[in-house]
Fold:
Amino acid sequence: MTTNAPGAELTQTCARSVEPCARIQQVSKLFGSFAALRQVTVDLEPGRCYVLLGENGAGKSTLLRILAGLLRPTYGAVRVFGGSEPQQERARIGYMSHAPMLYDELTAQENLRYFASLYPGRHCLAPAEALRQVGLDPTLARTFGQYSQGMRQRTSLARVLVPQPELLLLDEPFSNMDVESARQMVELLSRFRHSDRTIVLTTHQRELAAPIADWILTLRAGRVASFEPGSPRTGPSGIDPESPAR
Amino acid sequence: MTRALWTHLLKDLRIEWRTLDALISMLFFSGLVVVLFSIAFDPQGEFAQHIAGGVLCVATMFASVSALNQAWAREIRHQVMDAQRMVPAPAAELYLAKAIANFLFVTIVQIVLAPFFFVFYNLHVAGNAWLLALVLPLGTWALVANGIFFAALSMSSRNREFLLSLILFPIFIPALLAMVQSTTLIITGESEPTLWIKMLLGYDIIFTTASLLLFDVVFHAE
Structure:
């Protein structure tokens, strides 16, 4: 893992030499004269879970939107999956925003079926299966607009899962959720952590996300303020299956 | 028709079927225009035949704009558009599906409105009435194809409803002129509207092609 820690141009923080899933190099993003990101350099290893912390306006969402290919950096470059621009690899990237990104007037199944049809040539999860994976009943006939906040967040996550993306970008997945719903969401994400997917999630709630994080990255005023290891991965025997000492 | 185009179209038709938002607002608005014009001008005989084409086109235009202003509202709400930007399916198909859906809505409104229009204006068609079945869809497509494109272009603006009318109406003038002239000529039977119909067809081809080519840039703009 490589990042630009304060006071150093580039700091090697992890000795693993794996082809990064995403490479963010000296990325700055300006909105007018406001710098949302300032020379951020981060490599994201495949199969890892990264938690982005930071106050409002720290640049977390901007970084995620750049990784998703929805924004272009003003300076610097972002490469995903070995050298492509995010815009060229949209089908392999799943992005969940604060907003649910679904139609209120359709049911969860109809919403998911709609998006699944827009990934030609990609093996998508069946909408019912995606809903089951996030703990929702696929037979619910209510339209999405009538769902509770927790259910909306889960359906939104199900939408992201449908095309089976290799890079999951989750912007505030616990926002507006009650304690129980947030705990269930953490359990859900912890299951994904043990798959091959790379997860990047932003949150204000460090205590919720810390148990599932491989790396915790804190942004402050658009810069990487700290980069620290998260909780060790434990297999069924309690041993960290990724530990170099294994 | 590709799968993505069909998927977008079905989605728009299903949502409209459930809410009837566009249809109700268009029917109400166009009905009001037709009634108000008939009260204001008290159209009779030859005079009615001369203004009928214009009234029909203006009623269609105003009614369509009320729907076009809302054409992308559901995509803006909840940032659905970001999810659509992330899919690999071509954006042009989303544009085309939206245009076809709105074309169908406006056509339904015209079909419902037509009998009232003929009653209020005491009309009888002197020319080839079947040509109306060619002119009205061509004119409607000109309006909708441009309207959907410019509605997408003005999406990020705070005054998008005002902006849409400001951009759309001047660009629509050649099509409006062709639509009004050909409708009037068909109703009065004074001469053949062939030239105006050709102009309308040319307008449709040029602007639909341009919109299809440019939509991807507009849609993925930050």
